[in-house]
Amino acid sequence: MKTIHLALFGPGKVGSKLLEQLASSEEHLKESSGLILKLVLVADSSHALLNPKGIKSDWDSDFKSSSKKYSFSEVEDYFNKHQFKNLVSIDTTASIDFPHKYFDLVNAGSHIIAANKVANTLSLEFYERLRKVLKKNNKNFVYETNVGAGLPIVETLRNLHLSGEKVTRIRGVFSGSLSYIFNTFSSEQKEFSKVLEEAGVLGYTEPDARIDLSGKDVGRKLLILAREIQLKKEFEEVKIESLIPHQLNGDTTLEEFNSRISELNGHFEKYKSKQLKDEVLRYIGELDVEKGSLEAKLIREPKASALGQIEGADNIFEIYTESYKDQPLVIRGAGAGAEVTARGVFGDILKISERLN
Ligand SMILES: NC(=O)C1=CN([C@@H]2O[C@H](COP(=O)(O)OP(=O)(O)OC[C@H]3O[C@@H](n4cnc5c(N)ncnc54)[C@H](O)[C@@H]3O)[C@@H](O)[C@H]2O)C=CC1
Ligand SMILES: N[C@@H](CC=O)C(=O)O
């Protein structure tokens, strides 16, 4: 039997779904792979539950009754004290601060898995420094769910690139929430604000939906893919069309924004009125390697096209390379939601497990 010790940061929609999936797969993993996944820490932004012997599968009730306020140095002390073999820290937060702690986690002996896209979209200096520290400490950093949730985009692209295949262009719908929003809004007589709320309840939007509507989430995904094929790009170089009207942009707090989302209705009706009968609205990402351009924008797309046909919260990625010149390699499927994302993080745990003894 091989034991992997897990520390989960961010038991929100994705994180708690992951814990549910881990609990229900416990016996299957032991029998089929000889693998024990032992959860030794669950922490949100203020409270942590620690148990070196393993947190029970009904972690939720223990978290409510026994978690304690913590500072990050206590986590480091805990890891240093117990020297857990095969320790993997999982970031299912949406925090912009937490990724700065990855260095300390790695130095305390941990591998990292991130659903959070922030670490891969900070400055190039941060990106490269993190990889240097990982290499020095012989630790893995895996983040398949950063793009396309549970769809195998990052690894596919990396394998193409590492095998020497020249990637020339990537184009597609990279946002599950915007996909759901435009699929629903284009075809149903519902107010935009209602559709946006639904996308939140279904777990498709970021905790702060402005990250999706401003195009920032798609911009981040484009940058992650560009860096995966070793293009040295910064976030500021991504050309992004924001869908947030001027009066709600910039200085509004999240609370204010959420209380004023009905102001989006008129704004999005204007987009809808421009749509022709056989068209749908699509918010797309496009990376042109030759031009070195990264762009996120709203377009009108024929319903009959590959991009036009996607449903629900689907993503679609068309990857053009030397070999896939005329007919791109296409990956399509559910591109957001706690269930598929948690399953993707689970896959990352198995990927790291295979590399460890
Ligand atoms: N929902 C989806 O379809 C997908 C989500 N993701 C990413 O997964 C992440 C989580 O998304 P959700 O579960 O929807 O968010 P959520 O808001 O439901 O959960 C985030 C959790 O992180 C905790 N948290 C915040 N700061 C923290 C810190 N410093 N330390 C520890 N915990 C902290 C919060 O208390 C909360 O429990 C985000 O980064 C998102 O971009 C990635 C792919 C798909
Ligand atoms: N908010 C994101 C979730 C996955 O990354 C999206 O809408 O795609």
Describe this structure in words.
- By secondary structure, the chain is α/β, with parallel strands linked by helices.
- It has two domains: 2-149 and 339-355, Rossmann fold (3-Layer(aba) Sandwich); 154-334, Dihydrodipicolinate Reductase, domain 2, CATH 3.30.360.
- Helices cover 39% and strands 22% of the residues.
- The chain contains 13 helices and 13 strands.
- The protein has a seven-stranded mixed β-sheet. Strands 9-11-10-8-12-13 form a six-stranded mixed β-sheet.
- α1 packs across α13 and α7 packs across α8.
- The longest helix has 21 residues, at 13-33.
- It is globular, with a radius of gyration of 21 Å.
- It binds 1,4-dihydronicotinamide adenine dinucleotide and ligand LTNE7NMQ.
- The ligand N[C@@H](CC=O)C(=O)O binds at residues 149, 175-177, 204-206, 212, 217, 335-336.
- This is homoserine dehydrogenase.
- NADPH binds at residues 93, 117.
- Pathway: Amino-acid biosynthesis; L-threonine biosynthesis; L-threonine from L-aspartate: step 3/5; Amino-acid biosynthesis; L-methionine biosynthesis via de novo pathway; L-homoserine from L-aspartate: step 3/3.
- Its EC number is 1.1.1.3.
